[in-house]
Specification:
Elements lengths: L15 E3 L2 E4 L8 E3 L5 E6 L2 E7 L1 H4 L2 H6 L5 E3 L3 E2 L2 E6 L13 E4 L5 E2 L12 E4 L5 E2 L12 E4 L5 E2 L10 E4 L9 E2 L2 E5 L1 E2 L2
Parallel strand pairs: 3-6, 5-8, 6-9, 8-10, 9-11, 10-12, 11-13, 12-14, 13-15, 15-17
Antiparallel strand pairs: 1-2, 2-18, 4-5, 7-8, 16-17
Length: 196
């Protein structure tokens, strides 16, 4: 059958760089990382930690960037807000207004990604998850149709139901990470390795 199809993603032959180390095994055209400004985030502070409750791309990107996709690129969630660590990506936090983001990095400070956090992100191609995440909630990446790589730098987290329903990523992990199998939440798992 014919049809409109999905736009072809450009591929960069350079390895992914995480915390100054080059990793081979996947090629993404993520570009240089830029931190999401705190003014584009709603959040809650409880005790000594921060939960992101909503990302608002209209507070981050200009109208012309949103319309033209110029705002797409590689964005990093802040590791700290108001001097406190960001430890949780809350439910639905990027669902409604994260649609322009193509590559996201979650910092090492985050330990939990709640349900539906990144669902329906039509332009999301890759997400890199730091080494401290221990749980990922239900439907986190539900119907993020272009998602093709989820890169984990830590051990396998506990995972809810339907995490990748309607999305088709390959999962990449470090060789020394624990708890991984050949599949994760129904998706294939491959190794990434340091380049010399």
């Amino acid at each position: 059958l014919g049809g409109c199809g999905v736009e072809k993603e450009s591929v960069n032959k350079e390895p992914v760089v995480w915390r100054g180390v080059k990793w081979a095994g996947l090629n993404l055209n993520a570009g240089p990382a830029k931190e999401i400004p705190v003014t584009a985030l709603q959040y809650k502070i409880k005790s000594d930690s921060v939960t992101i409750t909503q990302y608002m791309d209209f507070m981050h990107l200009t109208t012309s960037e949103l319309i033209s996709d110029a705002g797409s690129g590689h964005y990093v969630i802040p590791e700290q807000i108001e001097g406190k660590p960001v430890t949780c990506i809350g439910r639905y936090s990027f669902e409604a207004f994260g649609g322009s983001l193509t590559h996201i990095t979650i910092p090492d400070s985050v330990t939990s990604i709640e349900q539906d956090a990144f669902k329906f992100l039509d332009k999301l191609v890759s997400i890199t998850i730091g080494n401290s995440v221990t749980s990922i909630g239900n439907r986190t990446f539900y119907r993020s149709k272009r998602l093709r790589a989820v890169i984990f730098f830590g051990d396998a987290p506990e995972v809810g139901a339907l995490v990748f329903k309607g999305a088709g990523p390959t999962i990449y992990r470090k060789p020394d990470a624990k708890g991984w199998n050949d599949t994760f939440a129904g998706r294939p798992v491959q190794l990434i390795t340091k380049t010399p």
